[in-house]
Specification:
The structure is a single chain. The chain is α+β, with helices and mostly antiparallel strands. It is 25% helix and 37% strand. It has two domains: 3-124, no CATH class; 130-369, Outer membrane phospholipase (ompla), Chain C (Beta Barrel). It has helices spanning 3-15, 19-31, 35-47, 55-66, 74-78, 87-91, 97-106, 113-124, 225-229, 289-292, and strands spanning 130-131, 136-143, 165-179, 187-198, 207-221, 232-243, 253-266, 269-281, 295-303, 306-314, 324-333, 341-350, 360-369. Helix 2 (19-31) packs across helix 3.
Amino acid sequence: MSFADDFEKGVELYQKGAPSRSVEYFEQAAKNGDKRAQYQLAYMYENGIGISIDINRSNYWYKQVASDFKDIPDVLEKIDLSQGIPIELQLHPNIDDALQQFMYQSLDMPKEGDERESMKDTVFSTFGLFPHEKNYVLPIVYTSEDYETYDPVMFPGYEQYNNNYEAEFQLSMKKPLTFDLFGFNEIIVIAYTQEAWWQIYADSAPFRETNYRPELWITVPMDNDFSQNIYLKAYKMGYLHESNGRSKPLSRAWNRVYLDFIFQPTSTLLAELRAWYAVQISSNNSDISNYLGYGHLKLNYFIRKHQFNLTWRNNLSFDGDNRGSIEGEWSYPVGRSKSTFWYIKGFNGYGASLIEYNQQQNRIGFGFTFSR
């Protein structure tokens, strides 16, 4: 039996709930140089999985494997994460080799579990930030709006925005705060999103508008029979502030509470149905709900490496004042990249940005997104 076969046999026993029986196979594969087995043994010795805790043996195997850490992400494809793959590998499987070598070869790791975790937190310093909404750059966006024709009293300075082409980009991050605080397997998260519209092709290339969206929410997974029958996977309750940081008359702001229902009718389709209530609205945009409505429906559809998104907003007024918007998005990996995607975004309706919540326009942009 080859060392590859030894590793596979160890994985099979490990996944069947017999980690103690898997040790001998991992040992044999590790001695023959299988980096995956070396890492798994180090972790099992460190945490006493199927074998007594032995920090010296754990450190020995960590040092062996650190010399070629790039092979270790293969473990993630072989071993159930629930069986104990460390969180730094779940979140950062491609973390810098040199940092791993420094941690496992140069540092004397503490023997007490909590102290080891504290040292790992210090060395890795990730603090758990993740993408929230898309992080994208659209260097070319065409809009049907002629901004320079806007009322100069209500839109002072807009005469300088004399180009129908501009750039658009967005930065969006979230930080999970805690899990299962109230016993419902809920996740509490904070997030911040900043979106900017840049008249890069106009004279002096000024920024036209920037929107700021801090947010707090709680997500509760659903796993009862009723929710499964209607494909409901979770619901989400949140608070969202949105403003543009401008002074009057260009100031725009509102605060909302919202309730999301997240459905998955098929394995390739996710649907988010959101209803919101405005708890505070600036006097400069007191009629914003007439244009942006009281909620949205968002569909995410996956076809191989393609992702399509469709977002529909409407004020649900059918007495002649019906308004809303529809936004379509497409993304696809650039080459073999897993974090850079071609991105096309089209928009029709009201509220492309906060400053023009009551202005109808058509927009189409092309560029890149770095999260989906």
